[in-house]
Amino acid sequence: MALLNISGLHLEVDGRKLLSGIELSLRAGEVLGLVGESGSGKSMTAISVLGLLPPGAQRSGTIDLAGRDLLKRSERELCAIRGSEIGMVFQEPMTALNPLLRIDEQVAEVVRTHRRVSRREALTLAHATLERVGLPASRVGHDRYPHTLSGGQRQRVAIAMAIVLKPKLLIADEPTTALDVSTQARILELLRELVRENACGLLLVSHDLGVIAEIADEVAVMERGRIVEHGTVAQVLRHPQHPYTQALLANSRPQPVPAPSAAGTGAPLLEVDRVVCEYPAHERTLFRPPPAVRAVDGVSLRIDPGERVGLVGESGCGKSTLLRAILGLETLRGGTIRVAGEGYAGGDTASLQKIRRQIQIVFQDPHGSLNPRWRVADVVGEPFHLWRGAGAPAADERRRRIASVLERVGLSAADGERFPHEFSGGQRQRIAIARALVCEPRLLVLDEAVSALDVSIRAQILELLGTLSRELGLAYLFVSHDIQVVRAVTDRLYVMQRGRVVESGHSAEVLAHPRHDYTASLVAASPDLDLALARRFPQSAKIPVAVAS
User: Fold this and answer.
1) Extents of the domains making up the chain
2) Which of 146, 182, 366, 404: disulfide with 97, CB 3.0–4.6 Å?
């Protein structure tokens, strides 16, 4: 008998049909992967099970959980079910956790909401659950606050809140999207163990087919509010029948981007020579200054004009601190940074303004990096403040450049009059790229610029970056935890661990034959669609490379 059975589910919000005839079933002890692009209805299907729909939503059909139709339950009855019988793990734990409560208090709060126990008993159960998800008190104090934890640790706290009462059904909505590969592998292994030990069902919502291939038993593919394909992982991912599934599979394997002809020629564009960055530790001392934590420890790297260089490593390895130093936002404790032969350091405003015309950054989350109150033309034209005094473009020239750069990234000049919220995620990332290009830099720093995008949108953005590199001779510093993307789009690669570069070389060579154990562990932990299927289903034929018709 199925633990969860969704039959004929239709959903409309404000007259707009979001779900049409959804049919899904999930048995205890199994993992069902729900995949599709943004807007396909994945998350809406998941929150329909919880009854957390926006006002004005109209539903029909049945959502049966262990013999009870959740659509016929009152809000009071659903509140009793949420947390006790259905656990939810959200994509971004920092927004799902209360910043004012200690982590053990947040887990204990779930217990006291559903059970009549004392605060001490709830905390005892909370501590045991935190230990179970890999957060022992000896290593991670249970009295800490969310902001003091890493991304992977915060996700484990969110999982602890979801499983503390051993629910029958666990729903995880993109639980590993923003995590580095090692942390992602540990979270997936934890979810597998919980399903096996608790005999619960897991509904895993993800756009990453590599993740689905690693953990799921069955997979359902959604497009525009409908299930277009459903079956076992081996059936759907090895022999896709629907053109949409075929397109998702094709886009899940990033295609190598041809290098520009100017790559690797001439004097270096960026030289980082034995750079050291430190910050004070959190420990307080009475008679001496707090010890310094060395986030970047003697790192050296080089990027030539037109070259595409990757930088990978786990959270906390020093990548972000190094990026801030390159952008002039971090004070160096040692070493030098030169752009086109000219050195600079944090605090020198005149030299920084000149350097920042040559180096621009594209952030991971375009929604968070674009001012929602500004029109797109104002957002794209923001870097013009780097030209002060003589040589600054006139107003007409600025408008011309903004229109030109919007068209270059695949938008139109008329889009400059719209606001960021009127665009899709992929279009917002194009706006962010346009903003980075408007001052005609020579180097783009891409900080996890495609990690939060659907596979098809990611393919479009990577193709755009390849085109810009060839046409403009741009150099890229590509920071990513996605090994498959780094392999496809970079020429050379640097691997960072604990503030140091432990391995570097040509990307394909480093990732195919890693010399350092840490690099090998990153490659092994990276979800790979083909390798996961070959490992789990060795008797099946090799996956045909499917192309959408």
Assistant:
1) 1-85+169-238, 96-166, 270-536
2) 146
- Which residues have CB under 8 Å from 410's CB, separation 6+? 430, 464
DSSP strands (E only) in 38-111:
57-65, 68-69, 86-89
Kindly list the strands in the beta sheet with 86-89, ordered across the sheet, starting from the edge strand earlier in the chain. 86-89, 169-173, 201-205, 31-35, 218-223, 226-232
Q: Provide the whole-model pTM.
A: 0.81
Question: What superfamily does domain 1-85+169-238 belong to in CATH?
Answer: P-loop containing nucleotide triphosphate hydrolases (3.40.50.300)
Calpha distance 475→444 (Å, rounded): 6
> What gap in Å lies between CA 22 and CA 9, rounded to an integer?
5
Q: How far apart are CA 505 and CA 224, in angstroms?
A: 43
Query: What is the C-alpha end-to-end distance of the chain, expressed in Å?
Result: 37
Element (H, E) at 445: strand 443-447
pLDDT of res. 532: 87
Q: Which amino acid is at 349?
A: T
Q: Average pLDDT, whole number, for the chain?
A: 87
- Residue 487 is classified by DSSP as H
Kindly state the tokens that stand for 411.
């938008």
Q: What is the pLDDT of residues 315-354, one digit of tens each?
A: 778 888 899 899 888 888 899 999 988 887 555 566 777 7
**125 φ, ψ to 5°?**
-65, -35
Q: Which of 404, 321, 415, 313 lies closest to 370, judged by CA? A: 415
Tens of pLDDT, residues 80-101 = 999 999 999 987 777 789 999 9
What is the number of other CB atoms lying within 10 angstroms of the CB of residue 17?
13
Predicted pLDDT of residue 549: 35
Torsion 130-136-140-142 (CA) sign? positive
Pairing of strands 334-339, 492-497: unpaired
Residues paired with residue 65 on neighbouring β-strands, in sequence order: 4, 68
Helix (H) or strand (E) holding 432: helix 425-437
Closest CA to 5 of 17, 22, 19, 20: 22
Query: For residue 403, which of 395, 414, 392, 394 has the smallest C-alpha distance?
Result: 414
DSSP letters, 323-388, are: HHHHTT-S--SEEEEEETTEE--TT-HHHHHHHHTTEEEE-S-HHHHS-TTS-HHHHHTGGGGG--
CA-CA distance, 47 to 173, in Å (whole number)? Answer: 9
Nearest Cα neighbor of 36 from 223, 213, 299 is: 223
- Non-local (6+) Cβ contacts of 307 within 8 A are 263, 264, 269, 475, 476, 491, 492
Give the CATH number of domain 270-536; options: 3.40.50.300, 2.60.40.10, 2.30.30.60, 1.20.1200.10: 3.40.50.300
Integer Cα distance of 342 and 351 in angstroms: 9
pLDDT at 422 over 60: yes
